[in-house]
Specification:
Length: 423
């Protein structure tokens, strides 16, 4: 198999458009929305919704690509999918602009990705089509609980089937829901978003009883209990959400409504992460690239040029540190590309997905910290965005499974241990 490192033309063209958006609509407002947490950048959201519709990308969830059809009665060779690769590149560029803005980009985010990964065709048509509607729309994923952080098998939110009405009744509380408020609260300028809530349909079955449910915005019994004030990604809200006797239709469940003896249902839900963890990695690397480029720019302004090609012992310490940061960034990006390439080609990528997430979380923190360290007062004060990027970068190591949890996933995959055998 031939490996090509050239960026596909459609992806390169989209990157040019998104770079302009990142510079003109995100960077220019980054400081304001960092200091005015929970305000909504409507101009950005409405513009991006219109732009994504024009590009035929109403949802940030990867699209099912159409075949090439027939020509003269002969079947054309089907082109390999680049849906996830394209999405990773888009996310990296948007996060380079402002990762908080990226997290509220209309198109569904993690909620839509969960439907795309675990929903059936009818559910995908029903829920994902709305992201191409008249108004910008968001969706969020509700997983974390006070007693169940990275250990998703410990989730206590319960879903019970009311056989009389054929509805699911959800009870529980979710915390740290990214874009939870904007996805659930029915703002006048937003389309009808939804939450994807993880719950157990049979606690005695353990992981086998775990399912995810689509909860429409405005559902009675669901409310925003709290909005967090955070270290970074402040343009994006992070909410606590309570569910008290919240009723959703029978077909709102993603996956089988029956409990099997195996953990098939849980694995189906967890497949969401195999798709989304490389995308989270891409967002973290966008922040890291922003910090590294800023560092090099300021060094150049002060007469420090990186002399590539010289033996390491002939370089200054600053030159070595910058080159080391570049190596970390490029290696992490290549690992992320491998994970999304595998997703596009329908290959199991549980190992590579978690590896890319671990690497990006580690690299993003190290590069932004090193940039602040080298620039000193220029990196530490609020005149520039570097100190903000330093704060923004840390979340990559935390959400979508902490670095520690993803290291456990990697170890289990490599060594062949189950979750019970290696904790």
């Amino acid at each position: 198999m031939t490996i090509e490192f050239e960026t596909p033309k459609p992806i390169a063209q989209t990157q040019l458009v998104l770079k302009t958006v990142a510079e003109e609509m995100m960077r220019s407002k980054s400081r304001y929305f960092d200091e005015h947490e929970h305000e909504i950048p409507w101009d950005y959201m409405e513009f991006m919704h219109t732009a994504m519709k024009a590009m035929g990308a109403g949802s940030l969830a990867p699209k099912k690509e159409k075949g090439n059809g027939h020509d003269g009665g002969e079947q054309k060779e089907k082109r390999p999918s680049i849906a996830y690769q394209s999405l990773a590149s888009q996310i990296e560029m948007l996060a380079w602009g402002d990762v908080g803005f990226y997290l509220i980009t209309p198109g569904g985010g993690l909620g839509a990705a969960a439907v795309a990964a675990a929903g059936n065709d009818a559910q995908k048509e029903k829920y994902l089509a709305r992201f191409s509607g008249e108004k910008p729309t968001l969706a969020a994923m509700c997983m974390t609980e006070a007693g169940a952080g990275s250990d998703t098998s410990s989730i206590r939110t319960r879903a019970m089937l009311d056989e009389k009405t054929n509805e699911w009744i959800l009870n529980g509380e979710k915390i740290f829901v990214t874009a939870g408020d904007k996805s659930f609260t029915e703002y006048e300028k937003l389309g009808k978003g939804f939450l994807v809530v993880w719950a157990s349909i049979d606690p005695s079955a353990g992981r086998a009883g775990m399912r995810s449910f689509v909860v429409e915005a405005g559902t009675p019994g669901v409310k925003i209990a709290k909005l967090e004030h955070k270290l970074g990604i402040r343009a994006s809200d992070t909410a606590s959400i309570s569910l008290v006797d919240a009723r959703v239709p029978f077909d709102a469940i993603l996956g089988s409504p029956t409990v099997e003896k195996t953990t098939t249902g849980f694995k189906g839900a967890m497949a969401t992460f195999d798709a989304t963890r490389p995308l989270v990695a891409a967002s973290g690397l966008g922040v890291a690239r922003a910090a590294l480029e800023f560092l090099k720019e300021k060094l150049a302004e002060n007469g420090v040029q990186i002399r590539y090609g010289l033996p390491r012992q002939k370089l200054s310490n600053i030159e070595r540190e910058v080159i080391d940061c570049e190596i970390m960034l490029k290696s992490a990006w290549l690992l992320t590309l491998k994970a999304v390439w595998m997703a596009d080609n329908k290959k199991s990528n549980a190992l590579e997905s978690s590896m890319s997430k671990v690497k990006a979380g580690d690299v993003g923190t190290k590069i932004t910290q090193k940039a602040v360290e080298i620039l000193g007062p220029l990196g530490y004060n609020r005149e520039f965005l570097l100190e903000k990027w330093f704060r923004d970068a840390k979340i990559t190591d935390i959400y979508e499974g902490t670095g520690q949890i993803n290291r456990l996933v990697v170890a289990r995959q490599i060594l062949g241990y189950s979750g019970a055998e290696l904790r």
